Amino acid sequence: MEPVNVAIVYYSATGTVHALAQAVAEGAEKAGAHVRLRKVAETAPPEVVGTRPEWVAHLQDTADVAEAALDDLVWADAVLFGAPTRFGNPAGQLRAFIDTTGPLWYQGKLADKVYSAFTASNTAHGGQESTLLALGNTFYHWGGIIVPPGYTDPVQFQSGNPYGASHVAGDGAPGEVSLQAARHQGRRVADTAALLKAGRAA
Ligand SMILES: Cc1cc2nc3c(=O)[nH]c(=O)nc-3n(C[C@H](O)[C@H](O)[C@H](O)COP(=O)(O)O)c2cc1C
């Protein structure tokens, strides 16, 4: 059986979600998946980005990360979306990419894939769950198979978010618990996609 294809499509302004995305990729690779790590395009104007040096620095630091294309979604057996919370919702940069998927959705090309999501916020109750659930609304429309982490690994009792890996950026950069939860999510999504692929082939 060929390995499953896992796309990780994320937006990050200051690096938190990017760090989680890399950990998700590690987990999926460890499960044997082919992985594409893709950022979405920055849509904020340079004068807004320029108000925060860490935003400018992160854009420069990730200049070599390939930008997500619709083909990445077609290619994938499973897709994990990552975005920081913005007033309790996914960042508009990720939504802008998702909003270009209408033709794929119409042709049924987004259905029957595995989907999952991860996020970051500045504060503990600042909207991580609402952000992840909002991304879930889209997965329902696509006819996706949503695979959350739940409490399927001991690290989930430390990270405390069954909806998806998440990190409180106000506490600093993601530490081992947040990164381990992200790795677990990537591994679980890849494992589930592999089981589905094997079942369909049988
Ligand atoms: C316009 C805007 C809205 C935000 N809204 C929230 C919010 O509702 N709750 C929260 O805890 N943090 C909020 N934040 C903070 C971001 O979620 C936080 O900086 C982000 O998760 C860091 O991720 P990144 O380093 O990947 O960009 C907001 C930030 C911006 C710029």
From TrEMBL:
It comes from the Bacteria. One of its GO terms (cellular component) is membrane. Coiled coil: none annotated. GO terms for molecular function: FMN binding; NAD(P)H dehydrogenase (quinone) activity. SUPFAM superfamilies: Flavoproteins. Residues 6-190 form the Flavodoxin-like domain. It holds the Pfam family FMN_red. Belongs to the WrbA family. NCBIfam families: flav_wrbA, PRK03767.1. This is TrpR-binding protein WrbA. The gene is wrbA.
